[in-house]
Amino acid sequence: MCIFKDLKMNHQKKRVLVAGTFDLVHAGHIYLINEAAKLGEVFVVVATDKNRELFSGKRPIIPQEQRLEIISNLKHVKDARLGRSDNNTLKTVEEINPDIILLGPDQKYSIEILKKGLAEKGLNHIEIRRLEKYYDKFELHSSSLIKQKIIENSKENNS
Amino acid sequence: MCIFKDLKMNHQKKRVLVAGTFDLVHAGHIYLINEAAKLGEVFVVVATDKNRELFSGKRPIIPQEQRLEIISNLKHVKDARLGRSDNNTLKTVEEINPDIILLGPDQKYSIEILKKGLAEKGLNHIEIRRLEKYYDKFELHSSSLIKQKIIENSKENNS
């Protein structure tokens, strides 16, 4: 065992991975990233348009490069990159090599399945946490609520 | 004349004021703020809901506190605050005391009228610049275009 290496490791900041679509950036996204920053340096994976289409059947409103541009410019983001456009999402996790993956309260991944997938890739050392608290300090705390308000306002203006 | 004071002043970063509604934050907003950061420390004034209603007849989609939350969390923003809810917008300029006011390419204020207003308050030293280049690197480079796409998508889904 190398004590000096361990001592050095203790002084290094942890790498925290956060992933999401971030379609219409709102205060809930900011909260997730800022909570991640309390754990270490934040690395964000922004879902590609194609990947979102694969999983949910539709593309986000804002194209991937624009979503990436905003996330990259947030105060507590150390680095942001686009995810992959295939099913091999764990490859990106492997590249970033985080100490912690922080899931948002509304991210549907099962921690158990994710852990199993990571173990198969020899990434057992990655800790998975979920932000339990749903951020509802503000009225429009999700992209869906924002879209809904825009659509309702447009109907009111046309009626 | 105090030479030492002047020397000190030269080493201080300039204070750059940027103002806007920032209703649905997009890459154009990021561009304006990052260009301002090239000139000095960026202080952002986020328009209040009431003020927007006074000027344009309608409130923004995103309430003022949420808009402020996102702008405050952008990398190159030194400080962000809400503007006033009356017509005395120059009072906020006086409080921030910037060296430069940077206008966005689509901000309709006349530089001449703004200069006159500042002069009346004894704020002749503030330089006013306008970002000439309209940011159109990305498809959805304005809040209106984003709203339009959301409304069109919703119509397609309902048809």
What key attributes describe this structure?
homodimer; 159 residues; alpha/beta; five-stranded parallel sheet; 7 helices; 5 strands
The major beta sheet of chain A can be summarized as: 5 strands, parallel
SSE run of chain A:
HEHEHHEHEHEH
The poorly predicted ranges of chain A are none
* Class inferred from helices and paired strands of chain A: alpha/beta
Distance between the termini of chain A: 73 Å
Number of continuous helical runs of chain A: 7
In percent terms, what proportion of residues of chain A is strand? 15-25%
For the residues shown, what is the average pLDDT of chain A?
Answer: 88
- Radius of gyration of chain A (CA) equals 18 Å
Strand element count of chain A: 5
User: Greatest chain-chain interface?
Assistant: A-B, 29 and 29 residues
Biggest sheet strand order of chain A reads: 3-2-1-4-5
Molecular shape of chain A: globular
Oligomer: homodimer
Commentary on this structure:
The first copy, chain A, is 45% helix and 16% strand. Chain A has 159 residues and is of the alpha/beta class. The first copy, chain A, has a 5-stranded parallel β-sheet with strand order 3-2-1-4-5, sandwiched between helices. In chain A, strand 1 (15-20), helix 2 (27-37) and strand 2 form a beta-alpha-beta unit. Chain A is globular, with a radius of gyration of 18 Å. The termini of chain A are far apart. Chain A binds chain B through residues 24-27, 30, 33-34, 61-63, 65-66, 69-70, 73-77, 138-140, 146-147, 149-151, 153-154, and chain B through 24-27, 30, 33-34, 61-63, 65-66, 69-70, 73-77, 138-140, 146-147, 149-151, 153-154.
